[in-house]
Design a protein that fits this description.
Chain B: One of its GO terms (molecular function) is N,N-dimethylaniline monooxygenase activity. The complex is a heterodimer of chains A (210) and B (449). With 210 residues, chain A is an alpha/beta fold. Chain A has helices spanning 3-10, 61-67, 90-101, 115-123, 165-174, 192-207; strands at residues 21-25, 44-48, 72-76, 109-113, 131-135, 153-158, 179-181. In chain A, helix 5 links the parallel strand 6 and strand 7 (179-181). The radius of gyration of chain A is 16 Å and the shape is globular. Chain B contains 10 helices and 21 strands. The chains are: A alpha/beta (210), B alpha/beta (449). The structure holds flavin-adenine dinucleotide.
Chain lengths: 210, 449
């Protein structure tokens, strides 16, 4: 974040505070003595444009991420799932993501799906995410902040999206080539395709220095 | 340094040494690590958080210390405080915040506690050798670093005024940093000396706890309430700063008119300059206590006499307890004053852009400013700039040159030395931030080669 961007934000009214729903799954919650929270790894915080919010990640994602030894969390931004609605556009939702991120015990990776990818990208402009994973991004902001602390960025899209303007713009913006997954962009929360997608993300994360 | 040369220094290569694990030191460690540096941070105490940690020996916290700057203006730019915290968090919350910052970014593993740096000096060109003060019986440890950032704070050496008769005074005299517990005020006749934020806060504590409270103040100060127009005062004033200059002045004057009139009614003169020119007093309760008589204001103390205290106006009182809220002397003892631009006779540092040593390229100080606004964001941008500078210093000689010119020019903005030593660290936040912005731009304009 640039100093000017910070000054502007510090002088703009803060979004109304809401009590946010945050779902957490820690490796210890698995009751599997083989799997330990590895302090060398970064936690993961997920958000999605799906109105279910954090709950969308309960079926498969959180548990599977925890199984890989990482602290796993998901947040419902204002108006999603168990988080009350409140005023505010993408910036307020990015605020919700940052506020959730700072409650995670260690520097966290942000994973955003659909509109959630846009919020995660905005959040990464204010908070030094340990990594930024964008899954089938949608309604991406035109003015994208440079991610703070230069985290590694992964873009994963469904095969059907690779040619879309939006995806090309995002991949150009970050200077990265998207990876693809099989299946529909809105159907990533359970099933064999979802598992494959998650494995792609987790092995990418493991390949980063954290 | 003969006495240290018995043992070879341990060479830490290009690693950076940060001295102090208060807010400034922690922010420095985080930003240096983010920029790829290895960091060793030395903290003489056994805890982190610096002055916000009551377990730190000599902590200057007094009963019920709260922030005088509001949450949104105080939090570190890339690690906000929880937004369900109050507008003005307590000292306890501030410590909780710094602790979670340290934990979040894994900073503690880079901190060596119980390790005071007693001395540092330049060796082989741009490198530094630091000496860790030995624990009883052990030998001093010496280490070499690629660069050093001093973040030792400036609230550790109480500034103790001398008055005739003070030494023989029969009541109790404490410096504000020694008043740990409001119960010490209970039932006492209390005299508080000093009109800064600490003095005013403590006078308010005495107003509700003590049998009586007299507050001795030498000169006028700006008094701001904690809220203006329904918003935290610093936020409200900062918002005006983005307006064009004349409009800004007009709006600021209009916003401050009410508080100024109230202060005048209570006998508090605002000094000629604006509230940005020195640390203003921010306290919403004080003037009300003056208004209901629970704080009685007096001028300067002339002398102490047995059980009595006489003021310059000839009046006398007989306090049980005198609290000296007379501030601190900024002191950086671990380095020769010359390295920070001072002299033996006038040791106060004269730094480039308030942070870079004018003598050594790899020596900087973080947090040695009183900006009248939240200090942590300023330190964040300072250490961001320092980290970037250390990065490009070697990798990009061309940019390093333009940086040096830039920093030299920026220092002109702050060249006006405040005659009053108490205002030496004061910067105009607006100007200083703009200056930091220009410095960072010079360092980052296009990607480093
Ligand atoms: C009563 C009070 C109220 C304040 N209120 C506010 C406020 O509301 N808002 C605001 O923004 N600021 C406020 N401040 C200003 C405060 O200075 C900053 O907020 C900030 O805490 C400064 O942090 P620091 O790390 O620079 O210094 P410190 O917190 O003083 O930390 C310095 C650290 O360095 C260590 N150290 C010193 N010398 C050595 C050595 N030789 N070797 C190793 N370690 C060493 C010390 O033990 C300490 O831990 C207040 C200050 C005081 C005194």
């Amino acid at each position: 974040m640039s100093l000017t961007a910070w000054i502007r934000r510090a002088r703009t009214p803060e979004p109304v505070a809401v009590r946010r729903e945050i779902a957490v799954f820690e490796p210890a919650d698995l009751f599997d003595i083989e799997i330990k929270d590895n302090p060398e790894t970064n936690p993961v915080l997920c958000c999605t444009g799906d109105p279910a919010g954090a709950a969308a990640f309960n079926a498969l994602w959180l548990k599977r991420i925890a199984t890989s030894g990482r602290y796993a969390a998901a947040v419902s931004v204002r108006g999603q799932g168990g988080t009350p609605a409140a005023e505010g556009g993408p910036d307020a939702k990015a605020h919700d993501v940052v506020q959730a991120a700072v409650t995670v015990p260690r520097q966290t990776v942000l994973i955003g799906h659909r509109e959630g990818a846009a919020w995660a990208a905005l959040a990464a402009g204010r908070y030094p995410a340990a990594g930024l994973v964008l899954v089938s991004p949608q309604r991406f902001p035109k003015q994208l902040p440079k991610p703070v602390g230069e985290p590694p960025v992964l873009l994963v899209v469904s095969e059907s999206e690779t040619q879309s303007k939006e995806v090309q713009a995002v991949s150009e913006e970050y200077g990265i080539t998207p990876l693809t997954f099989a299946g529909a962009p809105d159907d990533v929360f359970k099933g064999a395709n979802a598992e494959a997608l998650l494995d792609t993300i987790l092995s990418w994360l493991d390949a980063q220095k954290h | 340094m003969q006495e240290y040369s018995s043992q070879a220094a341990y060479d830490r290569g290009e690693a950076v040494c940060v001295i102090g694990a208060g807010a400034s030191g922690l922010i420095a460690v985080k930003n240096l690590r983010e920029n790829g540096f290895e960091v060793d941070c030395y903290e003489r105490d056994t805890v982190l958080g610096g002055l916000w940690n009551p377990q730190n020996q000599h902590s200057p916290l007094y009963p019920n210390t709260h922030l005088v700057t509001s949450r949104s203006q105080t939090e570190i730019p890339d690690f906000p405080m929880p937004d369900d915290w109050p507008d003005y968090p307590s000292a306890t919350q501030m410590l909780e915040y710094l602790t979670s910052y340290a934990k979040h970014f894994g900073l503690s593993e880079h901190v060596w506690y119980g390790s005071e740096i007693s001395h540092l000096e330049p060796v082989e060109g741009s490198r530094f050798e630091v000496v860790v003060k030995p624990a009883a019986g052990a030998a001093a440890r010496r280490l070499r670093y690629g660069a050093v950032i001093i973040a030792t704070g400036h609230h550790w050496a109480p500034n103790l005024p001398s008055y005739p008769g003070l030494d023989d005074f029969r009541g109790t005299v404490l410096h504000s940093s020694q008043l740990k517990d409001a119960s010490r005020l209970r039932g006492k006749h209390v005299l508080v000396i000093g009109g800064g934020n600490s003095g005013v806060d403590i006078a308010c504590e005495a107003a509700v706890n003590a049998a009586s409270c007299v507050h001795s103040v030498r000169r006028g100060t700006w008094h701001l309430p904690k809220y203006l127009g329904g918003e935290p005062a610093d936020y409200a004033l900062a918002r005006l700063s983005s307006r064009p200059k004349l409009l800004r002045r007009f709006l600021t004057d209009r916003t401050l008119k009410g508080p100024k009139r109230l202060a005048e009614r209570m006998g508090v003169e605002a000094p000629g300059h604006g509230p940005g020119d020195e640390e203003p007093v921010r306290n919403g309760r004080y003037l009300e206590h003056v208004g209901d008589g629970s704080i009685k204001r007096r001028g300067e103390v002339a002398r102490f006499d047995g059980y009595d205290v006489a003021f310059a106006d000839g009046t006398e009182i007989r306090p049980d307890l005198v609290v000296l809220a007379t501030g601190y002397q900024p002191k950086i003892a671990c380095v020769a004053p010359e390295l920070l631009g001072g002299t033996r006779d006038a040791p106060a540092p004269r730094l480039f852009a308030r942070m870079f040593s004018p003598k050594a390229q790899t020596l900087a100080v973080a947090g040695l400013v009183e900006p009248g606004v939240g200090v942590l964001p300023i330190v964040h941008w300072q250490t961001h700039a320092i980290a970037r500078w250390l990065q490009i210093r070697k990798s990009d000689p061309e940019r390093a040159e333009s940086f040096k010119l830039q920093v030299n020019a920026e220092s002109g903005h702050n060249a006006v030395e405040h005659v009053d030593p108490r205002r030496r660290l004061v910067v105009d936040a607006e100007e200083y931030l703009a200056s930091l912005g220009r410095i960072i731009d010079t360092l980052e304009q296009e990607p480093a080669k």
